[in-house]
Design a protein that fits this description.
Blueprint lengths: L5 E6 L10 H20 L3 E8 L4 H10 L3 H19 L6 E4 L3 H16 L3 E11 L4 E2 L5 E4 L8 E2 L16 E5 L7 E10 L5 H9 L7 H10 L6 E2 L1 E2 L25 E2 L1 H19 L4 H8 L7 E6 L5 H13 L17 E3 L14 H8 L1 H10 L7 E3 L1 H29 L36 H6 L7 H10 L3 H22 L1 H7 L1 H21 L5 H11 L19 H4 L20
Parallel strand pairs: 1-2, 1-13, 2-3, 14-15
Antiparallel strand pairs: 4-5, 4-9, 6-7, 6-8, 9-10, 11-12
Helix pairs in contact: 2-3, 4-7, 6-9, 10-11, 11-12, 12-15, 12-17, 14-15, 15-17, 16-17, 17-18
């Protein structure tokens, strides 16, 4: 560990009940990966954790559908999810674990015991959906009905996907069993509840302080939850999930029929951020107490926590997780930012494999390449509103922005240097020609932030206010503006192409060889900068640029020893162009 800023990044835990689609990737995994890679390249310490959510009714529902046990489902789909995220999409987790571990069970049970002992847990008799035909209680997701708020049909018992409202048991209109379509009734049972109203005053201050940090729509929705906080149940009548501890708990505090109950998945899933970090600490041989002090101390100004999730999980990561942490009475670190994304749809419709509105997340990478998919998903990332994957747009964005813009500039620069000037290293350029160009030129752009670029030197080193491409890029990523940050990369590439065209080194070569060398020096410098800025988005493409320049690859899966977002001319001057450089990207001729 380097001793500077530390960044803990938690990412939503995917249910292992089926295949992920690109909407899931754009919702939380890709933005988290971009942010983590960026932070590591800045030389800041990063721990990014997540894992497969093995519990909850989505798994038991899938098990019922396939005639398998829940553990069979976990063993069937878990490795697929892990491989898709780590191997196919190259999400750079420091640890990707699962909730079905001894560490997670132990940590979850300890969180519960602390909440109980600290007076934040109450027992209540409540009603749960019950199937008379099957003689069993039905978890929320086994029940569907009409949303009482927006009146959308076929909404599940715990949440309406149409309006995003979290639902309590009994709120659905005309509820029925999801699998059998038979009507259900309500039957009394006893459960544990977290007494959320006890956290209200603390949460109000916490959320008010985030008004300039969180995305505006996230902040408004989170704050609206404070209006009517109610105790929320954390147990269910289930036989699949984290067991409820009974040791060292007063007899009067133990639930009726406790052996047939388990913790609600949304109680233990968010605790996975803590248990996952503990598992990571164990994997690197870190002492528990030292690790907690370093990575979970709420008073450490150099420690930042970020949680990346989709909008259907907003409540659980802006209200719920904070309450569980506060309730430990251990001054644990609360999330600094919760960059929630909205939904990604397919051609205007929600992804639905059963209705054929679907893209196989693995196959699309196999067909068109990881660069194309990560680039397009970033360009349409649903940061503040729902977005759409459109096939024609995918083809256009890839061919025009990646191939004809970024790829074209890099290839024309490196091949001209090699084939026309016979340059392999910067040392072959005369020292007096190794200067950053200040020749004024204008470029038309819709990006007002950097719209009046005057010269390459100002672009890379900044003006009197030190505004340069690195700083603007960093500001956008620090503020979770991933699309804007990517647009800056495209703008830099556009500027680079305009610079190359206007300087026309093919004309300068014979009549003004020194000017030609200066132009290629600056063009190669721009390629070097693009290699850095593109890395968080397209690590594979960045690696190929490193190969073309004969430089060590930027390993953004690990914290670096320096800040790459400061211009390093010494490293740039060490480039050694490889022979027979191939185009960085190849056009997609047609969709298959």
């Amino acid at each position: 560990m380097m001793g500077g800023q530390k960044n803990f990044i938690g990412v939503a835990w995917p249910y292992v009940n089926g295949e992920l689609h690109p909407g899931h990737i754009a919702g939380c995994y890709l933005p988290a990966d971009i942010f983590a890679r960026y932070k590591r390249l800045r030389g800041e310490d990063v721990i990014m954790v997540s894992g497969n959510d093995c519990f909850g009714t989505p798994i038991t529902i899938q098990a019922d559908k396939e005639g398998l046990t829940p553990r069979d489902i976990v063993e069937k789909y878990g490795p697929r999810t892990t491989s898709l995220l780590l191997d196919v999409y190259k999400i750079s987790f420091d640890l990707f674990t699962k909730t079905d571990t001894d560490i997670h069970r132990k940590v979850t049970q300890q969180f519960f015991t602390n909440l109980l002992n600290n007076g934040y847990i109450i027992k209540q008799k409540t009603y749960q959906y019950y199937s008379e035909i099957d003689d069993r209680f039905l978890p929320d997701r086994y029940v569907e009905g009409e949303c009482p708020y927006c009146h959308a049909k076929e909404q599940r018992g715990d949440q309406c996907e149409a309006c995003g409202r979290s639902l309590q048991v009994g709120e659905l209109i005309n509820p029925y069993a999801k699998l059998t379509k038979n009507p259900v009734t309500l039957k009394e049972t006893e459960h544990y509840f977290v007494d959320l109203p006890k956290f209200k005053s603390f949460l109000e201050k916490y959320i008010r302080d985030k008004s300039q940090v969180w995305r505006e729509w996230v902040w408004k929705e989170a704050y609206s939850w404070l209006e009517d906080l109610q105790p929320r149940s954390i147990t269910r009548d289930l036989d699949w999930g984290v067991e409820i501890p009974q040791e060292n708990i007063a007899e009067e505090s133990i639930l009726d029929n406790v052996d047939n109950k388990r913790f609600y998945v949304w109680f233990d899933a968010v605790i996975g951020y803590f248990s996952g970090s503990i598992a990571f600490a164990e994997s690197i041989g870190k002492n528990y107490e030292d690790f907690i002090k370093e990575w979970w101390n709420n008073d450490d100004a150099l420690l930042k926590h970020y949680i990346f999730v989709g909008k259907d999980n907003l409540f659980f990561h802006t209200i719920w997780w904070q309450s569980l942490l506060i309730g430990q009475n251990e001054n644990l670190k609360l999330p600094d930012n919760v960059p929630v994304n909205q939904f990604l749809n397919l051609e205007g419709q929600k992804f639905s494999k059963s209705r054929g509105i679907y893209i196989n997340a693995k196959e699309i990478v196999k067909k068109y390449g990881l660069d194309a998919v990560r680039f397009y998903l970033t360009s349409i990332m649903p940061e503040n509103s729902d977005a759409n994957w459109k096939w024609d747009d995918f083809l256009s964005v890839y061919n025009n922005d990646l191939v004809s813009n970024i790829g074209n500039f890099i290839h024309r620069t490196t091949t001209f240097a090699q084939n026309k000037l016979r340059i392999k290293s910067i040392n072959q350029i005369k020292p007096e020609n190794r200067i950053i160009d200040e020749s004024p030129f204008e470029i038309s752009t819709d990006n007002k932030t950097i719209g009046n670029v005057l010269n390459i030197k100002r672009l890379l080193l900044g003006d009197s206010e030190n505004q340069n491409i690195f700083r603007l890029f960093s500001e956008n990523l620090e503020n979770m503006n991933f699309k804007h940050a990517l647009q800056l990369v495209l703008l830099l590439s556009k500027i680079s192409n305009v610079y190359f065209d206007r300087k026309a080194p093919w004309k300068l070569q014979s009549e003004h060889p020194d000017e030609c060398e200066k132009t290629i020096y600056n063009s190669l410098l721009l390629v070097y900068v693009l290699r850095i800025l593109i890395n968080p988005f397209l690590p594979d493409a960045s690696d190929r640029i490193s190969d073309a320049l004969g430089l060590q690859k930027l390993d953004s899966t690990k914290t670096q020893v320096k800040n790459y977002f400061l211009l390093d001319l010494n490293e740039f001057h060490s480039i050694s162009l490889s022979e027979n450089t191939q185009p960085l990207f190849n056009k997609i001729q047609h969709l298959t």
